[in-house]
């Protein structure tokens, strides 16, 4: 199961789905309030644990037990919360959000709010601007390590997803005063990977010691915050290795 980040959709995983599907059944979801999924019901705050509850309900409805779960950014935080409430074979956390002390750092919040404002106000002009290499370099450098290499079509998807997610504002607000808190007895294999060119998550947002013990740390060379677009083969290899190891060890 693949979980995207805030201001995104299942399409964030499109560069790796075909490779993963050679080995596994793959589900890339639209989290509540993003892509084609409606927001959570009125009155339910879309914090990571609540979003994890929605994913757990989806898994129950599909009859899926103990999947391998990969998440990017907020999706990685949701994956951690999901593993606290139901069986998970392994977690692959790519550029995980929530590993900061206290509140969401100001830079992270302002960067996301600026991206949201720009794409909502000028979605059509920006969708044309990404036809040009300099336009992709200008708009996508917060998300990817080599934005000029991203295809115009993929860049347009990223602009549209940031602009259109109905749950963006409420979800961002619900995370501002939170960070990930590991629970006692957590026993799920974890692989954590950060892109070497991730401009969104600085040192202050990478407190991996907040994770349960035993997490394996990797670096994705030349990749930004959303490395599936930068190096799909490397991301697919990371997920494949972790899932194969977990499934082979299962009773």
What sort of overall outline do the alpha carbons produce when their principal axes are compared? globular
What is the helix content? 40-55%
- CATH homologous superfamily identity: Alpha/Beta hydrolase fold, catalytic domain
Instruction: Kindly identify the CATH topology.
Output: Rossmann fold
- CATH class label: Alpha Beta
Side by side, the strands of the main sheet go 1-2-3-4-5
N→C terminal distance? 20 Å
Total strand count, please?
A: 5
Q: From the 3D coordinates, which CATH architecture would you assign?
A: 3-Layer(aba) Sandwich
If you compute it from the alpha carbons, what radius of gyration comes out, rounded to the nearest whole angstrom?
17 Å
Q: Summarize model confidence as the mean pLDDT.
A: 95
The H/E string reads: EHHEHEHHHHHEEHH
Quaternary state, please?
A: single chain
Domain module count = 1
Q: How would you characterize the largest beta sheet?
A: 5 strands, parallel
Keywords: Hydrolase
InterPro entries: AB_hydrolase_1 (IPR000073), AB_hydrolase_fold (IPR029058), Carboxylesterase_BioH (IPR050228)
Pfam family, one: Abhydrolase_6
GO molecular function, one term: hydrolase activity
